[in-house]
Write a structure and sequence with these properties.
- It is a single chain.
- By secondary structure, the protein is α/β, with parallel strands linked by helices.
- It is built from 15 helices and 25 strands.
- The strands form six sheets. The chain has a six-stranded parallel beta sheet with strand order 2-9-1-10-11-12, sandwiched between helices.
- Helix 1 runs parallel beside helix 2, helix 1 crosses helix 14 and helix 5 runs parallel beside helix 7.
- The two termini are about 15 Å apart.
- Pfam families: CbiA, GATase_3.
- GO terms for molecular function: ABC-type vitamin B12 transporter activity; catalytic activity.
- Catalyzes amidations at positions B, D, E, and G on adenosylcobyrinic A,C-diamide. NH(2) groups are provided by glutamine, and one molecule of ATP is hydrogenolyzed for each amidation.
- InterPro entries: Class_I_gatase-like, CobQ/CobB/MinD/ParA_Nub-bd_dom, CobQ_GATase1, CobQ_synth, GATase_3, P-loop_NTPase.
């Protein structure tokens, strides 16, 4: 039977996903067979393997651990459809919609199924790195909290508690969490204070006070990382109202409501002389060389928002004088008509932007898995593989299509294509040549991510934290 080690937070967006990824990297390099695991995730950042859908964060952690992504790394995924409804994905496959008011019953229903998966992966690996969800001490949610309380208590999993000092209130975050859950205090290996800015000596007394008050070891005061790293939650995604000055290729991702799969564009952010911003600002969109319309979990609401914001003419102008790229839901929005007779996303019929000449029909069954197409883009004539997650089917006349393009407008259902270095480099070279921008050296995405993780692990604060954590865990 393998061991498990959990990274849980005082609240959302404290750095759980990144610390879990770094732990996967660190312990796999120590020769252990490591498996990332998040029992339940609510996220619109998903990818599809041959098995079905899973959260992108666990796929990133799999990369860090040198493992192939598997739906057993994230057995239960909830994808918000609207404010009070979410689609249920279990082991990669849709199992209906979770309506408002049934959350407690739903978690009790899935408890044994999720825990059975955890037992399987625990027995097959040397170490399972568990990522929690939200805050550990959400007292109104403890009954059935599969990702935190129930999992830790049932399997006696040792854990590290993570607090975020950048958002303030670090003492009630750390001390309050331990005080509210005394029954789990013994299982904690200690706590870390994450995202610290400035001279660490200024908070030495604070770390000592927290250790004394909680009775738990202070494992590390971890610095704020200015580099781009894994941000799983769109609520914590920084929106920009402008580009930096310079010769970079300017890419704006339109951050409309129900934005999904925004991590599709992480490889573009890692390229040299490319600036990628997520924005709703019309001036920033106008300044961009390329505007991307990303995936959406409610295409109708996203399209209505574009019209409410008065962005239609701007996007049409970008199609004439700049570049547009629509991915999945964004591809559907670029078309002429969207029809959803079954109410799978928005219900009814909507006029699209009409920038590309296709129409889209939403119907069952949902498609989630690997997909290949020959998109006919002006810069790419080879077969292209990716993954799809969609109810929509798009047609040009009577022919169903996966991709469509003109000289300056590109659309496709293929998620994950920007992770393919050759495709990404060809696309960026085409944009630069057309715009008259200087060439830039290409980047290997996997090597860039591994390099980022390794550089963090080599920093004294992080190296000391993981050495101490390893001593405590093995002890």
């Amino acid at each position: 039977m393998g061991k498990a080690l959990a990274f849980v937070g005082t609240m959302s967006s404290v750095g759980k996903s990144l610390l879990a990824a770094l732990a996967c990297r660190y312990f796999s390099r120590r020769g252990l067979r490591v498996w990332p695991f998040k029992a339940q995730n609510m996220s619109l950042n998903a990818l599809a393997t041959e098995e079905g859908e899973m959260a992108w964060a666990q796929a990133y952690q799999a990369l860090a651990a040198g493992r192939r992504p598997s739906v057993r790394m994230n057995p239960l995924l909830l994808k918000p459809l609207a404010e009070r409804r979410a689609e249920i994905i279990f082991l990669g496959r849709p199992e209906g919609v979770l309506p408002a008011g049934e959350f407690r019953a739903f978690r009790r229903r899935y408890r044994e199924r999720v825990f059975s998966v955890f037992e399987e992966v625990l027995s097959a690996n040397d170490l399972v790195i568990v990522e929690g969800a939200g805050g550990l001490a959400e007292l109104n949610l403890l009954d059935g909290d599969l990702a935190n309380y129930e999992l830790l208590r049932t399997f006696r999993v040792p854990y590290v508690l993570i607090g975020d000092i950048d958002r303030g209130g670090i003492f009630p975050q750390i001390w309050g969490t331990y005080a509210l859950l005394p029954e789990l205090r013994e299982q904690s290996l200690g706590f870390v204070v994450n995202k610290f800015r400035g001279d660490p000596g200024l908070f030495e007394e604070g770390m000592e006070l927290l250790a004394r008050r909680t009775g738990k070891p202070a494992l590390g005061l971890l610095p704020y990382l200015p580099d781009h790293f894994l941000e799983e939650d769109s609520a914590s995604l920084p929106l920009s109202a402008g580009f930096r000055k310079g010769e970079a290729l300017r890419i704006a991702v339109l951050a409309y409501p129900y934005l999904s799969n925004f991590l599709d564009f992480d490889p573009l952010r890692q390229e040299e002389e490319v600036e990628v911003v997520f924005t709703r600002d019309p001036r920033t969109l106008a300044e961009a060389h390329l505007v991307i319309l990303p995936g959406s979990r409610n295409v109708g609401q996203s399209l209505r928002w574009i019209r409410e914001q008065g962005l239609e003419d701007l996007l049409r102008e970008k199609a004439r004088r700049g570049f547009l790229f629509g991915l999945c839901g964004g591809f559907q929005i670029l078309g002429e008509v969207l029809e959803d007779p079954e109410g799978l996303e928005f219900g009814g019929r909507l006029e699209g932007l009409g920038i590309l000449p296709h129409r889209t029909l939403f119907r069952r069954p949902k498609r989630a898995g690997r997909l290949e197409d020959r998109p006919g883009f002006p810069f790419w004539s080879e077969p292209l593989s990716g993954f799809e997650i969609r109810y929509g089917r798009s047609f040009l006349g009577q022919r169903e299509i996966v991709s469509l393009a003109s000289e300056r407008v590109f659309g496709t259902y293929l998620h994950g294509i920007f992770f393919q270095d050759r495709f990404r480099h060809s696309f960026l070279a085409y944009l630069r040549k057309t715009l008259g921008l200087p060439a830039a050296p290409p980047v290997s995405y996997q090597k860039r991510v591994e390099g980022l993780l390794d550089r963090v692990l080599a920093r004294p604060e992080w190296a000391a934290f993981f050495r101490r954590l390893e001593d405590l865990w093995l002890g």
